[in-house]
Design brief:
The complex is a heterodimer of chains A (about 650) and B (about 425).
Chain A (H helix, E strand, L loop, with lengths): L2 H4 L1 E6 L2 E6 L4 H4 L26 E4 L6 E2 L10 E3 L3 H14 L17 H9 L17 E2 L4 E3 L9 H9 L5 E4 L6 E4 L12 H5 L5 E3 L12 E6 L8 E7 L2 E7 L13 H5 L14 E4 L2 E4 L2 H15 L3 E5 L5 H13 L4 E3 L17 H6 L2 E5 L4 H4 L1 H12 L3 E5 L4 H6 L7 E5 L4 H14 L2 E4 L6 H6 L11 H9 L5 E5 L3 H4 L3 H10 L2 E6 L4 H4 L3 E4 L8 E4 L5 E4 L12 H11 L7 H13 L34 H10 L2
Parallel strand pairs in A: 1-5, 16-17, 16-22, 18-19, 18-20, 20-21, 22-23, 23-24
Antiparallel strand pairs in A: 1-2, 3-4, 3-5, 6-7, 7-10, 8-9, 11-12, 12-13, 14-15, 14-24, 25-26
Helix pairs in contact in A: 3-4, 8-20, 9-20, 9-21, 16-18, 20-22
Chain B lengths: L18 H6 L4 H9 L2 H11 L11 H6 L9 E6 L9 H7 L1 H14 L4 E6 L4 H16 L4 E4 L4 E9 L9 H8 L23 E5 H5 L1 H7 L1 H5 L9 E8 L5 E6 L4 H7 L9 E5 L19 H6 L8 E6 L4 H15 L5 H18 L5 H13 L7 H4 L2 H10 L1 H5 L10
Parallel strand pairs in B: 1-2, 1-5, 2-4, 6-9
Antiparallel strand pairs in B: 3-4, 6-7, 8-9
Helix pairs in contact in B: 2-6, 3-6, 5-6, 5-7, 14-15, 14-18, 16-18
Classes of the chains: A alpha/beta (about 650), B alpha/beta (about 425).
Chain lengths: ~650, ~425
């Protein structure tokens, strides 16, 4: 026998012989024979708690029913998950759970996707022996900014409490009081508030914890579900967008998304979805006349925009990409290059670098680290929240978390044992700090990560949204703009007036530059100083790809119809390209180019000279157009239909 | 009469709270001898050989419990369970208040037996007097060089920490006790892992009852054979029985295990004149009632199990013919429903449900359908709980429900409930 075989345990579940690794819990082992064992308190990511007692199974040779969630497999074990005895035991537990559970399913948000409903149907009795009134507990408890709690519906599985402790490392939620009086509450009575609160509504097996944004909004069967990649930060969480009547009502995590989200979402990714239907949204191109904006049509907008760029005669620039999809960033770069603009950059904010280079790791490697050094002014917990959960997971497994200051980084890193499994997380802002980190990373053989402030910074970088052939980077462009040396500036999904390191410089540049185009969903600080504002589509309204922190190319799938008016940045770029009579790529050509570029890994490290302002650009120039073939373009047709609708 | 004075020797005769009195009577000699002359292994072997079983309720062989500790994993802890809260039990706090040095010496010997350097005693919150007395005793012992560093110059360190609970019955369950001791919510832990592997602060831990540890002193003094010679085949030695209920002289009586049930009632002065025995609850609130046909059963672990009940902590409650068993059953069920930590479903929901139904019976508002429900639910919530508390709701209830069905049937509502 090989060692692998020795680590496997043979047992029989419902008559089917199975072999699973030693230590596997019965509840997981049963899944190998496609047998679902009902659970409330057990959760794959939280482990067993042994509280609800609904996962009872019969094990031959053991007189009492056993809980599958905390019983590890044993050699020769014979398990019956669906025997009459197991069924009766579960039936009793269900009957007990329903003694005080309100039968308000018709008005409960969980109705239709409720584990209590499902298992009551499977195991419960049709009638009830309960002759006494049900217990009355607080309903509609305002737990915090995001969550409402119905104590009567709670089955005290403590998943929320354990999530708050084990996963979020917050320990705000507790069980209060005792016995049948116990309720869920925050320990201090303060509002329940942190980056990950919404997850408790998903792991709640009943309708006790509900999101304020989704309460009484819909039935699950009325929702149209689309799986996509969250684009609110660079983590790359897979999520479901659930849409009804043209409105995204909620987003949900994707089970088994172990590679990216680990099945959790942050509150930003979950709740920051209301803006799509905001009345504040820009729906028509706006052109500045003196001190106010007038609404204009798309044809005029493209004409004005193209005229300004033509008039600038190469003295134009474009900034954007970190908030665009890869296809848009690539087309942005290619179109501007084709019309003779070399001043391109994605870095409209503070961040200067996106790809960590050759030492970049995946989340599994981050989780395995036993020393995690966090460097930079911005916390990864803010920039990439769900990635921070991996750090907390490593911490729980015993990893040491070091918060490096810019001045003390070298000294702190020097003290790390060379035998450690080190991960370094940086915000990509201070390149000098980046070099110090890169030195340490080399010495310690560390895996490295850049938690970006822009969700697709890595994609923008990979798609080549960087200065071309001696062109200016964002900082130099703003500098030139302030000095009246820039004639036209196009800004795509960036708000430098809020996010740049030097906002005074940006303001001066925007005020002085004769023509500033801003593509945006809302009138941001930057848009208010624009000459031309183009209404853009949001991430749920367009399809494409994005590249996350770990360098993976991930799909973004449209789940919403955009309102009439806004175009995607891709469609805007196609409109602009038409003004210059450029040949556009087909969808297939664009996709192939994105994939090629995404696969081309940056081989450098943190703080490489490539990223220093004013330094020689090491980029080999791309051919003038990527697509020589001409041919018909699906995008072209699509845009034409939009423009002339 | 089989009443013997081993742990109870001197109580009521001498001021055993005074360390000098205790020492004059031979106190702390075994502790000194253990540290000076014996190895921890010697103490463990003596404990094992004596046949001593846990006096807190479960009756698990103490020596075997100690032997489950993984070798060479340190620190490890001994925790003395003085959270005595089983209905009908009142022996541990008597020992704590009357002979605190004996309790302490037992803890010291137990700690030495498992080779640990930090022992804890978890004292039920209500035992304020006992706590104060024990603190005084501990201070005296420390001043006398019996607790602390480098004891008797032999290089053995042993610290004892006293922790007061807050009065929750569930904290007498060893893992709930450990949670409470760590400052967490007092609720039982999921097992495995067991405390012997991962107990207090995640380290190997033995939790022993006060009486169990106290018996280590006479066992070392007189030898394990002396202890093992008393009692029955598998229930060795002596036991303090807390006799209460309808007897003329309720109190704590120390007897050899195996003393017949009938004799225990006689020891406690017998029934009141003219009264008839109806039932005995032989092992605390968690035990099923036994009846007159069991009067000649020896009071030991095996015989009580054979009678359908258990010896438990040795709380022996007698019920005569003045008892309203519906009220008695409600009283017990209400206790468990009130003390349920609420973690697991059967205990949290089942206990409360039964309590409400029984409450209606006491008010003569029972329903005939409730009779089936009591039998069915009582039976089915047993054996599927996270800890033994949930399994303790049913035994007394069903034993008296089955024995005295007429008392329950008499409380059924004649008219149907208004809709």
């Amino acid at each position: 026998m090989t060692s692998t075989n020795q680590d496997l345990v043979k047992l029989t579940i419902d008559g089917v012989p199975v072999e699973v690794p030693k230590g596997t819990l019965l509840v997981e082992a049963a899944k190998t024979v496609k047998q679902e064992i009902p659970v409330y308190c057990y959760h794959t990511k939280l482990g067993p708690a042994g509280l609800c007692r609904v996962c009872l199974v019969e094990i031959e040779g053991t007189p009492k029913l056993q809980i599958a969630c905390n019983t590890p497999v044993a050699e020769g074990m014979v398990v019956h998950t669906a025997s009459e005895k197991a069924h009766a035991g579960r039936g009793m537990v269900l009957e007990l759970l329903l003694v005080n559970h309100p039968l308000d399913c018709p008005i409960c948000d969980k109705g239709g996707e409720c584990d209590l409903q499902d298992y009551a149907m499977a195991y419960g009795r049709g009638n009830s022996d309960v002759a006494d009134p049900k217990l009355s507990k607080p309903k509609g408890v305002d737990l915090g900014p995001t969550i409402v709690l119905d104590e009567e519906r709670c089955v005290v599985c403590q998943r929320c409490v354990r999530f708050d402790d084990i996963i979020a490392d917050e320990r705000q939620l507790i069980v209060k009081d005792r016995g049948h009086n116990d309720i869920i509450a925050t320990a201090t009575g303060a509002p329940y508030r942190h980056h990950f609160t919404g997850n408790v509504t998903e792991i709640c097996p009943v309708g006790a914890l509900t999101s304020k944004t989704y309460r009484f909004k819909s039935r699950p069967w009325d929702l149209r579900r689309t799986q996509t990649t969250c684009t609110q930060c660079p983590v790359g969480c897979q999520q479901f967008s659930d849409v009804r009547h043209g409105t995204v009502l909620r987003t949900m995590s994707v089970e088994h998304d172990d590679r990216y989200s680990d099945s959790w979402l942050c509150d930003r990714g979950r709740y920051n979805i209301g803006f799509y239907t905001s009345p504040e949204r820009i729906t028509q191109p706006l052109y500045r006349r003196d001190s106010s904006f007038v609404q204009i049509g798309w044809d005029d907008a493209f004409t004005l925009w193209a005229r300004a760029i033509k008039g600038a005669a190469g003295n134009a620039g474009a900034i954007g990409g970190g908030r665009l999809l890869n296809e848009e960033a690539l087309l942005l770069q290619q179109v501007f290059r084709a019309i003779g603009v070399r001043n391109l950059d994605w870095r409209g904010g503070r961040q200067q670098q996106a790809s960590p280079g050759a030492r970049g790791g995946d989340y599994a490697a981050l989780e395995r680290a036993n020393v995690i050094a966090v460097a930079g002014a911005s916390s990864p917990a803010e920039l990439a929240p769900v990635m921070w959960l991996r750090v907390l997971k490593a911490k729980r497994a015993g990893a040491q978390i070091l918060h490096l200051s810019a001045t003390g980084a070298a000294a702190t890193l020097a003290r790390i044992d060379s035998g450690s499994r080190v991960a370094i997380v940086w915000d990509g802002v201070d390149l000098e700090l980046g070099k110090i980190l890169a030195d340490a990373a080399g010495r310690l053989d560390a895996v490295t990560y850049i938690a970006s402030e822009q969700p697709n910074a890595r994609g923008a970088e990979a798609m080549g949204m960087l200065p071309i052939d001696g062109g200016m980077d964002a900082g130099l462009m703003f500098d030139a703009g302030r000095n009246g040396k820039l004639a036209a500036l196009s800004l795509f999904g960036v708000n430098p007036l809020r996010n740049a390191g030097d906002v005074d410089l940006v303001r001066a540049a925007l005020n002085t530059t004769p023509f500033v185009m801003v593509s945006e969903l809302f009138m941001t600080q930057t848009a208010q100083l624009a000459t031309l504002v183009l209404p853009a589509k949001g991430a749920f309204e367009k399809s494409g790809t994005t590249i996350n922190v770990t360098g993976d190319l991930l799909p973004v799938n449209a789940s919403l119809e955009a309102p009439v008016g806004p175009l995607s940045d891709l469609e805007m770029l196609i409109g602009l390209a038409q003004q210059f009579d450029l040949t556009l790529p087909t969808v297939e050509e664009l996709d192939a180019a994105v994939i090629t570029r995404a696969q081309h890994a940056f081989a450098g490290s943190f703080g490489d000279a490539l990223y220093h302002s004013g330094a020689t650009r090491a980029h080999a120039l791309e051919p003038r157009t990527l697509w020589d073939g001409g041919g018909t373009s699906a995008h072209d047709d699509h845009v034409r239909s939009v423009l002339h609708a | 009469m089989p009443v013997t004075k081993v742990l109870t020797a001197g109580i009521g005769e001498a001021n055993l709270r005074d360390i000098n009195v205790y020492r004059e009577r031979g106190g702390y000699k075994q502790w000194e001898r253990a540290v000076r002359e014996l190895t921890p292994q010697n103490v463990l072997e003596a404990c094992d050989k004596s046949g001593l079983r846990g006096r807190g309720g479960a009756g698990f062989p103490t020596g075997r419990k100690w032997s489950f500790l993984p070798k060479d994993v340190y620190p490890r802890y001994l925790v003395c369970n003085c959270d005595e809260a089983e209905p009908g039990t009142f022996k541990d706090h008597m020992l704590l208040e009357e002979t605190p040095h004996l309790v302490l010496e037992g803890i010291l010997l137990g700690a030495y037996g498992i080779n640990c350097h930090h022992a804890y005693i978890y004292i039920r919150g209500e035992f304020k007097r006992g706590y104060e007395i024990f603190m005084q005793a501990l201070a005296e012992a420390r001043a006398a060089g019996l607790v602390g560093k480098n004891l008797f110059g032999k290089g053995f360190d042993l610290e004892v920490t006293v922790h007061r609970g807050a009065g929750a019955y569930i904290c007498g369950e060893e893992t709930a006790l450990l949670n409470s001791l760590e400052g967490k919510r007092g609720e039982p832990r999921l097992k495995p892992p067991f405390p012997a592997v991962a107990g207090l602060y995640g380290m190997p831990t033995v939790v022993n009852n006060v009486e169990t540890l106290a018996y280590l002193v006479p066992i070392l003094e007189r030898g394990p054979e002396w202890f093992a010679a008393v009692g029955t085949e598998r229930s060795k030695g002596y036991k303090i029985i807390s006799i209460s209920g309808h007897v003329q002289k309720p109190g704590n009586y120390e007897v050899p295990l195996g003393t017949p049930v009938r004799e225990l009632i006689e020891i406690a002065g017998g029934l009141r004149p003219g009264r008839k025995l109806m039932a005995v609850q032989p092992g605390g609130g968690s035990s099923a009632a036994i009846f007159e046909e069991h009067l000649d059963y020896p009071y030991d672990y095996e015989s009580m199990a054979k009678a359908g009940s258990m010896l438990g902590s040795g709380a022996f409650t007698v019920f005569d013919d003045t008892t309203d068993f519906v009220k008695a059953a409600l009283n017990m069920v209400r206790f468990y429903a009130h003390e349920s930590c609420g973690q697991c479903t059967p205990c949290r929901e089942g206990g409360h449900w039964l309590e409400r139904v029984l409450h209606r019976f006491v008010e003569s508002r029972g329903l005939s359908s409730d009779l089936d429900m009591i039998r069915r639910v009582g039976h089915e919530i047993t054996g599927i709980n996270l800890c033994p508390l949930g399994d303790s709701i049913e035994p007394f209830l069903l034993s008296v429900f089955n024995r005295f069905p007429d008392q329950f049937e008499a409380r059924i509502l004649k008219e149907p409930l208004p809709a």
